[in-house]
From TrEMBL:
GO term, biological process aspect, one: actin polymerization or depolymerization
Stated name of the protein: Villin-like
A GO CC annotation given for this chain: actin cytoskeleton
Keyword Repeat: yes
InterPro entries: ADF-H/Gelsolin-like_dom_sf (IPR029006), Gelsolin-like_dom (IPR007123), Villin/Gelsolin (IPR007122)
Keyword S-adenosyl-L-methionine appears in the UniProt entry: no
Family: Belongs to the villin/gelsolin family.
Keywords: Actin capping, Actin-binding, Calcium, Repeat
Gene3D superfamilies with a match to the protein in the record: Severin
Gelsolin-like domain residues: 27-106, 142-209, 264-312, 332-379, 418-485, 523-597
Amino acid sequence: MTEKVLDTFKNIRYKPGLQIWTINNLKMVPVPEQAFGSFFEGDCYIILYGSNDDTQSMDIHYWIGNGSSQDEQGAAAIYVTQLDEYLGGSPVQHRDVQGYESAKFRGHFTQNIMSGVASGFKHVESNVYNILRLLHVKGKKNVTATEVEVSWKSFNSGDVFLLDMGKSIVQWNGPQSNRGERLKGCLLAQDIRDRERGGRARIGVVEGDREEASSELIKMMISVLGQRTGSLRDAVPDDTPDQFQVSHVKLYQVSDTSGQLMVQEVASSPLTQDLLHSEDCYIADVGGLSLAVWKGKKATVEERRAALERAVVSSECTLLLKGMFMTSANTLIHVVQGRHATQDEITACAYQAVNVDNRYNGAPVQVRVTMGKEPRHFLAIFKGRLIIYEGGTGKPGVVNPDPGARLFQVRGTNEINTKATEVPARASSLNSNDIFLLKTDLVTYTWYGKGCSGDEREMGKVVSDVLSKQDKQIVMEGQEPPQFWVALGGKGAYSSDKRFEREVALHSPRLFNCSNQVGQFRMTEVAQFTQDDLDEDDVMLLDTWDELFLWIGNSANQYETQESYRCAVEYLKTHPAKRDPETPVITVKQGYEPPTFTGWFNAWDSHKWSGGLSYEEMKSKLDDSGSVTQITMVCDPFSLSTD
């Protein structure tokens, strides 16, 4: 590597979470964190993701906008190759094209992915109101928002559109739009209001099949878009890949052992791991939907280059798989949102953030942090001493937990990835893979699960010193004193699978969404899953290797429920690692999850399902937060007043 290349990457290293750069003047330029998830079709981006576990595995994505130049695309590809080499060759490389993003790519972003029509690294800034744009919200499971021409010509009857006028945001729901799109539209509008406008923008909702009920909002739209003539375009179907494509996978071998480079088909689905040889490279064609390139450790340079070139020519979305993992802004304003914070509290917090921002003449970077999705840099501020308590003291009518016994789950291995989250003080909250702190009136117990590592134990001690100045007692799993169980309300079952006793699990758990919402039954993997990813409209499959769990959402239809079991059995039969077909398949209903299921999720919230908001409830809250009169008073899209 040249000195110039090394200088480009000198500040890049493994860290959990996202690091993003855009290609600007053929150079890598960092993207500010508040702009993560927003992409412009005239640009290319490089995304580095570090896993938040002991494996410290990494993924490198380069995203190609439809309007980006060949030079930018070439530069992104070169930088990705060089970055991969700089990081030791261990990251998995991904090539994602606008409109064809992989589930892995989408999984990195907890909010919606927004694609803009602008270019040249001009992201929307916080607290700026001279905005006029139209966002097209589309999709059933993977909902995206794309910036389109501000014109009635961009509308259709099947999707959701957000007319963003700076101080006012109008959401127009197509008559044939689905519930997911409408809910995501509301969430996106709220995100723009809170994250980009400091809570000062007003939001109104228009139902496309009942426009007469929102006449003032329609007048506002007409003042910007002009009078609508003619009928709207018909709905554009969401992506519905043919089941033949999904189920037919072909494997091609790229080899030069004969003295001449050859690419030939060697197998079709189901594929097994023993088909891969480290001396060659392989291309897996997933029914023309995507390609995966596997590079053998002993493959020649020519084979590696040829495999990638053939794949890029053949596909819109390429995934590079090779090797194993490597084991190794400036003032910020963080707006922290608790899991059960009210909309009034969220808005007030955002408003106060604006006040603080104004004191520093708009220089700070504002970062919204939601509970359970704390970014790495946020955790690093507290140096392993972050404690998240259940309940709050500022809410009228709220009874705080009994301070006599409080239980905290500790996760992390060092000062920049550790946090403690309060969980219900009962035995079922325990998990053999983690450390728990039980604070009572007289003593604080530090409970070491059999699967926790030495680094985790050290961080447990750090958090324990912050949590309490009382006497402390270390308790090993299986050697608990009677007083420990008394404080938890008695002994009970918890996640204590033998696999939790291993410091590094041999197989990481995987979560799949099972749905027929796109017209055909499909299973889609959810990357970096949390409890929030359990969709009550569908069935979810959790693979913990020794068991398969089928989680049935309350609104899942009968076909999904029946088909998911059949697919679980087929999943085991066709797994490339030749899984035991007798692996137990366990059905779990929403709201009745056993500890053996909840133990695979961090800080499981047993009250989550009663706290979730439907689209109708979300719309009602928006209606309560700003009347049509208030919205129309600030309908000038270029008003810079902040009163």
